[in-house]
């Protein structure tokens, strides 16, 4: 065995202020309320900064600022709006190391992932939608599609800056203005993005960032001056939002949870499939809505796949997210850790068998070892409920028809994976799987040109690609 020497990324490159206000109308302003919230590094529980909690009055100010800015922003030719969005994309690329470090500190994800996955995708998203801004008449939504107005956007903590990019880039390209609320545990990269808007000379009020908790999100969603609501988060909150928006003129897109099946057939390249299983559920600590959290493996190769998977998991390195060799970082919050523990204990109680590799856990911070459950029945909570952590439930199947039936036996329908060497089987399966994205011989691959979104309780509307424009246009 070779030992790894520590390879920590330096945090010198980021300058975190002790406290942050709200970004409204292109200015940093104080909240009108008294409440502040400390955001921490989940890997060490160190306080990083204090952020304001926006009140209803603050949200109102932000929506007014966005309304005022809408008149001029929406009247700009698309080619002019594109220049701003391209500029934002270039600044993100220039500052990507700094943003990756900030994301890792605030979220707990490994620096290797924020540097090599999140940040390149964030920049790519802005570049991609900048390209659409002057071509909207050719997107298939009429010759001169109009923007909706003010978009109220609420995002979760698992990909803080990437979810911001998915929301803001298409909204601006289509001529809308936005008020965005980041998640309470990961506000810092959204606040850094506010600085980037200033650096890019984006007209004041086109982007407004209001930090806060669920109440701030609710105030934004319910504000009568909002024309479009875009939400990514839990199905539970998504339902509440759908109820509150029903009967208003607001257009709504919801990107919610998932319980994806990653399906391995006996003819698959098994070593690659094992890498795909690991990437599917242990990437980003399993805090991924489209995570391959249910492994469906064909019975004839189940033992072989599980042995290889366990060997592979024994080589994963859990620990300091700032270390460039780390594979598994910290769980984002104490609350999320409690949820993962509760569901894992339910798995044991209901009779599944739990396995984790030997894995030293740091003393401070929130951690959960990579975990595999075998002997899982479809009725078990760990097979039905979204755990949103590094926990894999393994089920087996004999025939393709049984694989389809088990894969679709979920209230969700965000993604699925198929591992086989037969092209015809991939197409046959993809036709029958009720999932917004179906990956074949790969998993968790993202591209700004490709639409992403769910069926059933995973939500509605699409983000990414040409389809993603529709959510921000009056069509
Ligand atoms: P969450 O509780 O639904 O929170 C998401 C966002 O909504 C946060 O900013 C949250 O604020 C805010 N919020 C909470 N209550 C609200 C309310 N009543 N009205 C308006 N906004 C409200 O979800 P989470 O636990 O943070 O995130 C994990 C979930 O997101 C998972 O279920 C996952 O599957 C889903 N997700 C889906 C996708 C997708 O693309 N489909 C992507 C990522 C995550 P606070 O942070 O202050 O609570
Ligand atoms: Mg944090």
Automatic annotation (TrEMBL):
Q: Where does the record place the catalytic residues?
A: 255
Q: Does the keyword RNA-binding apply?
A: no
Keyword field: Oxidoreductase
Do you know which Gene3D superfamilies this protein is assigned to?
A: Aldehyde Dehydrogenase, Chain A, domain 1 (3.40.605.10), Aldehyde Dehydrogenase, Chain A, domain 2 (3.40.309.10)
The UniProt record lists the keyword Oxidoreductase: yes
Q: Which residues form a coiled coil?
A: none
Q: Which InterPro entries match?
A: Ald_DH/histidinol_DH, Ald_DH_C, Ald_DH_CS_GLU, Ald_DH_N, Aldehyde_DH_dom
Record's PROSITE patterns?
ALDEHYDE_DEHYDR_GLU
**Aldehyde dehydrogenase domain boundaries:** 28-474
- What protein family is recorded? Belongs to the aldehyde dehydrogenase family.
Name the chain's protein. Answer: Aldehyde dehydrogenase family protein
Q: Which organism is it from?
A: Microtetraspora glauca
